[in-house]
């Protein structure tokens, strides 16, 4: 989400620049070249060059263009606020996941120690039952307590794994750096609109190898 928000802000910032460029006159240079010759009358060849500037500007449309800049700038500010909101949300999710991971690991450690104590209690109850110093109910109670502690330990470990996965995702994990950042359909559409050169090409194996050796 944060990467998408960053791209949206960058794209809108470019639109603001385009709108601001429309505020100023557009100056261009026009030119033509001509070459003529006549061989029948043995006239000399002629070579003509014509060049001159071209200025396009409509001062009466300045107000509308100025408002267009303001509209694009307002949209940019809105996207910036959304970006900040996404960053805060990601930070909150990471903090919650980290806290949950710590609590789950602490709970699992306590449950593990309790399971070991319950196992010793079961061994003692079983020994006393075999020697006739305790009834079988005491053995059953010790077994039930052991199962409860073992079940609690497994639940705590499961919660720890879940919190770890959530933390990994909140920190941006799960993104494959070798994957092309732009899908083929989008790349084709962008290349049809604008000359991107080699900027949209997928990095080859050599590029990945160079990146790994740096």
From TrEMBL:
Keywords: Cell outer membrane, Lipoprotein, Membrane, Palmitate, Transmembrane, Transmembrane beta strand. The keyword DNA repair does not apply. GO terms for cellular component: membrane. SUPFAM superfamilies: Outer membrane efflux proteins (OEP) (SSF56954). Residues 178-214 are annotated as: Disordered. It is found in: Cell outer membrane. It comes from the Bacteria. Residues 185-194 have a biased composition (Polar residues). InterPro entries: MdtP/NodT-like (IPR010131), OMP_efflux (IPR003423). GO terms for molecular function: efflux transmembrane transporter activity. Belongs to the outer membrane factor (OMF) (TC 1.B.17) family. This is RND transporter.
